Structures are given as structure tokens and as C-alpha cells.
Amino acid sequence: MNIRRVIYNFILVLVSFILQTTVFRALDFGDIAPNLMIIVVASTGFIKGDRSGLVIGFFSGLLIDIFFGTYIGFFALIYMYIGFIVGKFHEIFFSQSIAIPIVFITIADFLFGFICYILMFLFRNKFNIGYYMMSNIIPEMVYTALIAIFFYPVILHMNNRLDEREERNAKKFV
What we know:
Arp2/3 complex 21 kDa subunit ARPC3; elongated
């Protein structure tokens, strides 16, 4: 892995975290904000594969755990699995189209919300899943999908530029 790619991924995760916790909290609708970290994790997994999705997911979740989590590793594990699962579709689907990645980002956000519901509420005997779906999971999923329409092409463009630069550098040494 190239040092530029590591720096790019670090900056991408950090900027997304800062935007998610500041700007988009101010632009929330009914206390619902988009999940930019899911967009970053799912996009990276979809563009670069399961290993990259797993690593970016782990560090994104760890960042959320450090600042907002009750337990260190809870969100890291969830984001890591989501990045890995979405990354498995890297070989099957074409990442240059915008429709399929947006669908995967939407599904990933739904899975994230559902897993969080199960682990945070269902085990504490709070069985009102219909209310949680209609008030949290589905609105966040829609808001995240709308933001992903604008955010995914930026991530894709930056990844393509890094790939081109890595290819040019590799050709210099051959």
C-alpha cells in the first residue's frame, strides 16, 4: 500500500467524522443526520475490496467508539463487518456506476441501524422495532442515500486519481 493512499484514507475518515459530528448534526431533520462513516466504509469497500473495507471500517468505528461509544470496539466491529461484506461485492459489480454503490450504501446503513437496534435495545427487552424503524433507521437510511449521491463520486474520483498516480509511479520503476 502506498503512503499516499494511507494518508488519503486517514484524511477521508477524519474529515468525514468531523463533518458527521459537526456540520451534519446542525443540518439534521427531526434529530436524524446522515451517516457519513457508513458512506466512507461502504464506498471504500466497494471500490477497493474487502480488505480495505475491513481496515477503513475498523478505524472509522474505533474513532466513533473513542469519542461517543460506551464500549471500545462496539462500533469498530460493526463497521468492520459492514466494510468487509460490502467489499466482497468489489469483484462482482462495476464501481464506476453510481446506482449500485448507492444501493449498497443504503443497505449497509439499514444493516448498521438494525444491528445497533438488536445489540443496544432488543437485548434490554425494548421490543418496539416498528417505532425504531420509522423514527430512526429508515429516515437515516434515506438521508444517507441522498448525501451519498454527492459524496460517492468524490470518493470515487479521488480513488481513481490515486490509482492513476500509483500506476504511473509503478511504470517508472519497470
